[in-house]
Amino acid sequence: MAGLMTGAARESRVARYYDWLSRYHSLVARLGHKGGFDPLTVHRLLRSDRAEVAPADVAHDRLLTTLGPIAAPRVIDAGSGFGGTVFYMCARLDGQYDGLTLSPVQQARAAREAARRGVAGSCRFHVRSYDADLTDVVPGGADLVVAIESLAHSADPLRSVVHLSRALRPGGTLAIIDDVPRDTLGDDDPDFAAFRGGWSCPAIARDRTLAAAFAAAHLSVEHDEDLTPLVPLRDRAALERLVLSNRRWRRVLGGSVLGSLVDSLHGGLMLERLYRRGLMRYRFVLARLARPGSMRPSTPS
Ligand SMILES: C[S@@+](CC[C@H](N)C(=O)[O-])C[C@H]1O[C@@H](n2cnc3c(N)ncnc32)[C@H](O)[C@@H]1O
User: Fold this and answer.
1) Is residue 81 in contact with ligand 1, taking CB distance under 6 Å?
2) Could you give the C-alpha distances from 276 to 3, 233, 237, 262, in angstroms and in order?
3) Given the CA of residue 15, which atom of ligand 1 is nearest to it?
4) Tens digit of pLDDT for each residue in 146-161?
5) pTM to 2 decimals?
6) How is 257-277 classified by DSSP, letter by letter?
7) Which CATH class is domain 2-193+200-230+279-289?
């Protein structure tokens, strides 16, 4: 059971999950699939009201606009997927980037893309947990740690936030964009349980966990935006038709790799139900580490 897994077992499960999801994305992209996802990002496609901002870049655009002027930053992307966020930022800000992913398939694809774009010297990708020691990656600390839809996989989000805050230079910023369940959503809610299982998010942080994590890390929240209105949702009937068809496929495919992919799609459908029920929000939070003179982040017990 997910709750009883060791950290290493959980991470290798997330790595396998993204390795297979990445192969599936490559396959359907080669078969000419155009919608549903962007080739270099693995996060929610949001509604864009500006023609020049693609749905995959709405989150990036919000991030850069809100950060304000930040020249040539030292950045860690904690959960970098195929590197879409790193490439977006590097093209606009310059700087030095290190992307961390658990998936070797994602890392290899991101590194190939960095070489193809001629930015391999400034955009590096590692198969490394964001919970691991990062001092060799950013010896002098980072100006910005960004985590888009990645902390949701942490087995202990409070500990992960405190750990990532230690990779920041004084005055550095942690940016999180993620699905955040309402405090009132119970663990035993069937939609929530199916979402957590399908997407490998056993301990996804609710609002209160994030607030406790920022306090423990001595991070002060400078921006907290609810991006939920930008999350596209299907109408209820279409969603429920997909749920039924998904469960039929699951019975046919059983516990095979394809069955796990179908479970992952089911997790996404359950997440959509939770949005429709008003129990989930898509939050964008920027929190800044105190400058010298303030207390250092404490170790969570
Ligand atoms: C939904 S994808 C998002 C990828 C990317 N942020 C984006 O927006 O395209 C989640 C990412 O988090 C990564 N991830 C999950 N847990 C991680 C961990 N403990 N350490 C490093 N990466 C992790 C996965 O490998 C995957 O790349």
Assistant:
1) yes
2) 27, 8, 12, 21
3) 25
4) 999 999 999 999 999 9
5) 0.89
6) HHHHHHHHHHHHHHHHHHHHT
7) alpha beta
